[in-house]
Amino acid sequence: MSFPEFPQPAPGEVLLVCTCYEDGRALWGGLLDEIAARREDDSLVLEGSGVRLRMVEDSGWGFLHGGNVPALVPGSRPVPPVAVMADIPVAYGGDGPLLVDLAVIPGRGVRIPADRLGEILGDLLGGALAFDDLVRDMDRCGTYQGDGGRPAFPTPTSTAAHRSFPPLPSTAAALLVRTCFDDEAGWQALLGELGGTDADGWVGADQDPDEIDVEHYPLTALVVSNPAFEGLQPGQVPALVPPEEHTTLVALADARTFTEPGRSLTVVDLYDSPGQQAVLPCREVGSMACNLEIANMDFHEFVAEEGIKPWWEGA
Predict the structure, then answer these.
(1) Of 252, 180, 255, nearest to 221 (Cα)?
(2) In angstroms, what CA-CA distances link 197 with 5, 201, 220?
(3) Contacts 24+ apart (CB under 8 A), 145-150
(4) What pLDDT does 212 receive?
(5) Nearest to 189 by CA among 259, 135, 251
(6) CA separation (Å) from 5 to 13, 17, 67?
(7) What is the mean pLDDT of each run of 10 residues along the chain (315 residues)?
(8) Could you tell me if 252 and 266 are in contact, meaning their C-beta atoms sit under 8 angstroms apart?
């Protein structure tokens, strides 16, 4: 799947991109009524901050996700450090718009309350806020200063300076990506616990339905064990996932996997709040992937809340 490039924003403009369409018609949900702004041609000027939003609509951006955004921004001259997305959760769920990082860790995202859009964008563009600040103060639902509770495992903001990574493989299933190469025996034990890999490099492929433990549904994932991904952090993942397939999730086997009980994996959200992490025992990740794939549960339901025993650990 390929997407058209965004228009070149004027100096100081921030792109407001609609990515949800019905019969070619842009669906903004209630967003345009919730933000305090005045209309000027194809732009919205936010009250208080004076930030100008360039509204852009094209059904070619239907189902575009935050991680895909940085590659579509013209690079001919400097652009604002963020873009704003009105996506499916905005159109159908009433969620706040998604701010996508274009500068520090391109492709990661944080949701913000619609009525605070002018305030937060003004602070970002003026330097009073950094995108890292938004990530550090996300609730477990991926919303900046939201009321959904603090995540037990906050998403990290630090990354290796000037480090770039190759694209991840394109798949409509899940990816299991090794990012720590210090413990080969631990890695092999993890693969064994997940059922071992087949000749094509998959774990959990060709499961016998009669042998599946529905309480701990097996993970089906393409395994990526390439030192080029050593040190990869959650926020860097969304921009590396090719748009050709609707990848369910990316699970990282990182240092925590080999040093803590339960062989926990760091699972990365690709859609609702791109780059947000959920830390789960490896035996639970298959159930997570299954529930996300059939839209039975949302990503944030697998994000453990600080001070509260997660539901998957039982009563």
Answers:
(1) 252
(2) 39, 5, 10
(3) 145/113, 146/111, 146/113, 148/300, 149/305, 149/306, 149/308, 150/305, 150/306, 150/307
(4) 63
(5) 259
(6) 16, 12, 14
(7) 87 93 95 90 87 94 94 80 96 94 95 96 94 97 96 86 84 96 95 91 76 74 96 96 93 95 95 97 93 93 95 78
(8) yes
Phi, psi angle pair for 161, to nearest 5°: -60, 135
Any idea what DSSP says for residue 96? P
Q: What is the CA radius of gyration of the chain?
A: 20
pLDDT at 63: 92
Q: How many CA atoms lie within 13 A of 60 on its CB side?
A: 10
Beta strand spans in the chain (E)? 13-18, 21-22, 25-26, 37-40, 43-46, 52-56, 82-86, 98-101, 109-111, 174-178, 202-203, 221-224, 250-253, 264-268, 277-281
List beta partners, residue 56: 17
* Nearest C-alpha neighbor of 51 from the set 6, 11, 99: 11
Give CA–CA dist 73/83, Å, rounded.
Answer: 9
The CA distance from 206 to 187, in Å, is: 22
In the block, tokens 């290796």 appear at 160
* 100 CB-near residues (< 8 Å, 6+ apart): 66, 69, 70, 82, 83, 84, 85, 106, 107, 108, 109, 274
Residue 80 has a pLDDT of 83
Read off the pTM: 0.94
Nearest to 110 by CA among 182, 248, 102, 224: 102
Q: How far apart are CA 163 and CA 192, in angstroms?
A: 31
121-127-129 Cα angle (round to 5): 65
Find tokens 């900046």 and name the residue.
144
Residue with tokens 């720590």: 180
Q: Which of 207, 185, 178 is nearest to 195 (CA)?
A: 207
The identity of residue 12, as a single letter, is G
